[in-house]
Amino acid sequence: MALEDTRTQVQEIVGQLVDQGVLPEQVEVVLERPKSRDHGDYSTNIALVAAKVAGMNPRDLATIIAERLRGSPGIASAEVAGPGFINIRLSAQSQGNIAREIVTAGAAYGRSNALTGRSFNVEFISANPTGPLHLGHTRWAAVGDAIARVLAAAGADVTTEFYINDRGIQMDKFGASVMAASHGNPVPEDGYHGSYILDLAARINREHPEFHALGEPEQLEAFREAAYALQLQEQKDVLQIFRAYFDVWYSERKLYETGAVDRAFQRLREQGHLYESDGALWLRTTTFGDDKDRVLIKENGEYTYFAADTAYYLDKRFRGFDTNIYLLGADHHGYVNRLRAVAGCAGDNPDVNIEVLIGQMVKITRGEEEVKLSKRAGTLVTLEELVEEVGVDAARYTLARYPVDTPLTLDLIDIARKANDNPVFYVQYAHARIISVLRNAQDLSIDWRSAEFQPQLLTHDQENDLLGIIEQFPGVVATSAELREPHRIARYLEGVATSYHRFYDGCRVLPRAQESLEPIHLARLWVCAATAQTIANGLDLLGVSAPERM
RNA sequence: GCGCCCGUAGCUCAACGGAUAGAGCAACAGGUUUCUACCCUGUCGGUUGGGGGUUCGAGUCCCUCCGGGCGCACCA
Fold first, then answer.
1. Model ipTM value
2. In this complex, which residue's CA is closest to the C1' atom of nucleotide B22?
3. Is the pLDDT of residue A238 over 90?
4. Which bases in strand B are touched by protein, i.e. have an atom under 7 Å from a CB?
5. Model pTM?
6. CA A307 → C1' B76, Å?
């Protein structure tokens, strides 16, 4: 890749300067694509960074580096600008070769070994199985799944996981609500009130008419378990449709049944962080930055919810995950310190073994009117409804194109009505447009793959722009993985699409009817193919399709 | 009261300490005898909530104030 080659060249020059005593130490070189085309294909701030340790004026240092850079292969020019930036232009040949490298790499283009050998557990959504998944969950579904894909693209070993909160009083309230509905009775005040409760009740009545013959406690349990199974299955089905895949569905109950809780407590006891007080069992989380110690087993002998969280974390560690990523809603941010403290108490490093990403809430409006989300009140915008309105691609892309720490306001009417000018369609359209050109080339029997590729012909501004942008894809993927920020992929793809459309506008790819086939047409077909590959690979990381026709 | 997050164009939001803060939508003016016009070009739009500080350089880091969201259980 030209970018890496160039970076290496600058790095080598810096190394020479160190050897010659101009610089006291090696400095890491950062090359970036300048925002302005006037600043070259790449620029580096190396002279600005190194000037201080060198005791030199940044511009003087930049002049020395630029001078040596000019003699390097593939470099057309290197100039000092502003306070000491070095602006570099590549030769057309060097830049154009990128297209062939991308086409050759195919679906692997953008993948790297940046995180090879590291294992990640990515947990997200983790809803109660007491109702449909709503729009808030949908954001974590889109983002969590994309994070997993991006990490995997960076070479990491990734497991996605959904923690099922199937234990506790909410489950009983859920069961009682469905049971009441099945008898035609009003749902208890503190129960669940959505219309889906009626649907569940009707279905269970149909499939299990015998439940009504059971006694009170048995009947409640029967309804709870039947409704649980149905609701969980519905969540799985809708996530399947949403293309958010989970390797593991982990039941909270299973933690107790498999002895994971006991195993976790033993570990914590060995580490010396358990103690008893007031008849309860405590974890001394304050040792690791929590506000107060937390109870694991209550005075009455019951386990707290926190006990399960603690056991769950340790179970993940026992299963061998180095880094455990939690994607939590902002209403759970109070858990961050105690989760990190659990890692500390377990003898782990909270900065390495646990990572909590706090996602801000999604506010929803219908026009001017805000839609309040409440599962118990039954006013929901479900994942399913969103998909029905705008489709999986638009839903996933829209939710994945913002950083998770941005509070989001989405207008449902807007999304539905403006589906056609949603950025996702802009990106997808660019892909479809390219495939159409390649299809036309095939119809004209143009075999660009076998013909000689002459990258030095790609000298047009729009060609240069586009090549420079698609070359950045591996770097964007690596950054997205490193920062756990898949929205960078989306924003990047929008830039690729814009650049392609400009290229399309300014550079005729196929010969016109009266024209003969020239080498430039072939070279541009390579550019097209490389761009399509880049867009397809990027969309795949977001779980969004790359249509060949629109 | 303590803690976390946020405050950027009329709206929704970008910008891993870099050069003139960018897109989309909205508004206005243009562009295709030609490969997908779901496209492109241009115009309009900003004291990055206010004020200090750090440095070659701050929307970004630190302090402080203002405004908004959320959280501070032997609940789940």
1. 0.94
2. A35
3. yes
4. 3-7, 11-16, 18-20, 22-26, 31, 34-41, 56, 68-76
5. 0.94
6. 12
